[in-house]
Amino acid sequence: MQLDALAADAILFLVDADNSLIGSLTDGDLRRGFIKGLDFDTHLSQFIQPNPKFIQQGQYNLKEIISLRKDFFTIFPVVNAEKQVINVVNFRHQKSYLPVDALIMAGGRGERLKPLTNDTPKPLLKVGDKPIIEHNIDRLNTYGIDDVWISLRYLGEQIESHFGSGSHKSMRINYVNENEPLGTAGALALVNNFVHDRILMMNSDLLTNIDFEEFYLFFEEHEADLAVACIPYQVNVPYAVMETDNLVVTGFKEKPTYTHYSNAGIYLMKREVAEMVPSNQHFNATDLMEKLIKEGKKVVSYPFMGYWLDIGRHEDFEKAQRDIHNLKL
After folding, report:
1. Are the beta carbons of 204 and 133 closer than 8 angstroms?
2. How confident is the prediction along the chain (329 residues), in pLDDT tens digits per residue?
3. Which of 98, 148, 183, 308 is most deeply packed, by most CB within 10 A?
């Protein structure tokens, strides 16, 4: 029996011939039905709860998801506009269900990692037991980001072959191809059918344990048009630094440490920001940020204090192989 097989996740969602949601069924519903006089010959439609809790794709916000989680709605379906079930959220295995599309940039040649990338695209190089990009795909999935786009160029057919439609991960993975290198943000213009109003863009060659829900909440709290995750980088000055005002010494700092923040290659933006990216042009994320600032839009930095590694060089790749055993991604 399917309810027995599901064990702790023992709930079924019933659909009609068009895969449209018609109800939910638990072992409690069965017991109550039998108490009312129903038997094993009775159609399941007589046992079900006809109005189960669900969310509609592209028509929910994170506050609703957090509320469901707090109210112990552990499992519920996601439906499209036709009320067809397209996914099932299970908070026993997921941390959140963010109303976000993700674009993963995976078209680079990985020149600095040759000869490893001679016949394999850098995103498919394995760190631990799976490819670099798959660590990121699975982390997106953990936070319920299941509408994903991957931008391809160098040996991109291998990446597409590896992930396919994404159905084996309960995700919808689509692909766009850069005929010419479009920079770190140009691929945004290749997608014209994002599902959600918020878009997460990230490089494929990162290894990170970023909390995407915290990033999203930070973005919303600051009413940003674009947020960029930033990594702190400290500079230690081994000498006393003089503070001056028009050549007049006003004070000293003994061997100070200055903290600067570097771009982590992870961005969250409104969909209208993505629509500002010019078509078929080389366009970097820094170009996009400069454009937004000039137009008076709000660009904020999200200080990220967790683990982050850009796997660009052989020494980075070797570090990733060591670190992966101690990371909870």
Report:
1. yes
2. 444 444 455 788 888 888 888 888 877 777 787 777 776 777 776 777 888 888 899 889 999 999 989 988 889 889 988 889 998 999 988 999 999 999 999 999 899 999 999 999 999 999 999 999 999 999 999 999 999 999 999 999 999 999 999 999 999 999 999 999 999 999 999 999 999 999 999 999 999 999 999 999 999 999 999 999 999 877 787 788 878 877 787 888 888 777 778 999 999 999 999 999 999 899 999 999 999 999 999 999 999 999 999 999 999 999 999 999 888 77
3. 98
Q: How many other C-beta atoms lie within 10 A of the C-beta of residue 110?
A: 22
Its pTM stands at 0.87
- Segment (H or E) for 134: helix 132-142
Alpha-carbon span 207 to 12, nearest angstrom = 36
- Position 83, amino acid: K
Cβ-Cβ contacts under 8 Å for 168 (sequence gap 6 or more):
none
Tokens of 137: 């795909």
Q: Please give the DSSP secondary-structure letter assigned to residue 124.
A: G
Residue 205, token pair as written in the block: 């060659």
Residues 289/299, Cβ–Cβ less than 8 Å: yes
By CB atoms closer than 10 A (0-12, 13-18, 19+), residue 167 is exposed
**The tokens 């786009």 sit on which residue?**
149
